[in-house]
Amino acid sequence: MIPTITAFEQSPDRGQGLARDMPVRWALEEVGQPYHVRLVSFGAMKEATHRALQPFGQIPTYEEGDLILFESGAIVFHIAEHHAGLLPNDAINRARAITWIFAALSTVEPVIVQREISMYLERDKVWHEERLLIVEDRIRNRLDDLSARLGDREWLNGVFSAGDLLMVQVLRRLGGSGILDGYPNLTTYVARGEARPAFKRAFEAQLAVFTGK
């Protein structure tokens, strides 16, 4: 059965591959699973029909027969569990890869999102600059630890996994900030992720929604 995912009809990121359907598209491309996309307007996301799939009125959702999922991390995990290619076969390395899924979404991403909130919603506050410096220090603390753990390895657990997919996607949110410039191994780590053919297919598919091509 071909799953259906939802995505923004008009993405706020203007097709830069940062919307939450991107990691789901990427995961599906990595495992070679065809999928349908249903585009949703901002208004439709808040209506009862969509909230029956996603109670918080967000994207993406994932529908496969009677299975309905929401939250991009949970969807990626489901894809990784049911298709070869995103989780190692042996139990120990599989558990480590799953740990990096949670680390990406629970430890690294929240401080990056704090910066986005500060940049887009708090610029008019008198304390904006001071808060931004504090938030960026928190981000660098996380990146210090992540950079040290990655070292000179290509991927966090030796081979590419769903953990890398989500970590790379999280780090991409720092694009244009200059923060990653101080971490050459993380910069090249992100570039390796973006060079994967599956990433390119997913990115082009999401960009096509914005450009209409």
How many strands appear in the DSSP assignment?
4
Overall number of domains: 2
> In percent terms, what proportion of residues is strand?
5-15%
Radius of gyration of CA atoms, rounded to a whole number: 17 Å
Principal-axis shape: globular
Mean pLDDT, rounded to whole units?
Answer: 92
Structural class comes to alpha+beta
Read across the widest sheet, the strand sequence of neighbours is 2-1-3-4
- The arrangement of helices and strands along the chain is EHEHHEEHHHHHH
Described by its quaternary structure, the protein is single chain
For the record, the CATH class of the largest domain is Mainly Alpha
For the record, the CATH architecture of the largest domain stands as: Up-down Bundle
Unreliable stretches: none
Q: Look up the CATH topology of the largest domain.
A: Glutathione S-transferase Yfyf (Class Pi), Chain A, domain 2
Short overview:
By secondary structure, the protein is of the alpha+beta class. It has helices at residues 21-31, 42-45, 48-51, 72-82, 91-121, 128-150, 162-171, 184-195, 197-211; strands spanning 4-8, 36-40, 61-64, 67-70.
